[in-house]
Automatic annotation (TrEMBL):
The species this protein was found in: Thelonectria olida
GO molecular function: hydrolase activity
Top-rank lineage group of the source organism: Eukaryota
Domain Alpha/beta hydrolase fold-3: 18-107
Coiled coil: none
InterPro entries, A to Z: AB_hydrolase_3 (IPR013094), AB_hydrolase_fold (IPR029058)
Protein name (Swiss-Prot/TrEMBL): Alpha/beta hydrolase fold-3 domain-containing protein
Amino acid sequence: MLLPHRRAPRLPTIKTGEELRIDLSGGVFIGGVSTGATLAAVTAQRWVTEKRQPAIFGVLRNTPMLLDKAIVPEKLKDLWFSREQNADAMVIDEKALDYIKTAYAPDVFSAQYSPFNMKMRTRDFLWYTSKFVGRIH
């Protein structure tokens, strides 16, 4: 077991096409489930922010953990209630989430933890969050 000796978040990277023996000239599509989804989201945001190549043309994120109560912007805190709603969920309840967070030991303020922690201009951050908040209403 790598935890807790490998503190999270670790640096997500995209390997070169030569290493993977694939042609990346048309761009890349990345994705993942659970922790893989979190890594895909963080990698995609960094990749775009740093204007790296090849271009990312798609991101699949299935159940990423991108937010923590500590990093939810003040004006959006009233929308942060799903953890309370699902505290007694059948599969991953509050106790399981607490265990995962303790073992994972993330720095929730790091840009490696969540795209929401990227140093973006306010306008860009509001656009980014509006894509999610707009779907709630």
